[in-house]
Fold:
Amino acid sequence: MRLKTEFEFEAAHKLEGYNGKCANLHGHRWKVVIFVEGKDELIDENGILWDFNNAYEIKEELEHKYLNEILSVSPSAENIALWILKKLKDNNKNLLFKVRVYENAKSYAEVGDIEKQKA
Structure:
């Protein structure tokens, strides 16, 4: 069984120590795509493998925030994707995930357990 959901959020960040424009405080309209995979037998009594509201909860943690205060590492697209993946896996040990974090329409970071061709 495979699921996919996505959301967007607006947040500011800066890349401390980076030699370029991104060292300055700036914002993005980030897009997050979450892929979930699990065995059919993991579907609960309500017919749910993974509740899409989990994505909403992550969005609320990030929406209109200064990401440097949320993440303990530099808030690059790569580290945001890793942060989201960790939150997903901490609460759902029996499922596989893939997370894409777009910082613009053409550029994203991707991390997870699911092979690219599967999702």
About this structure: The beta strands are 2-13, 26-37, 96-104, 107-112. The first helix runs from residue 53 to 62.
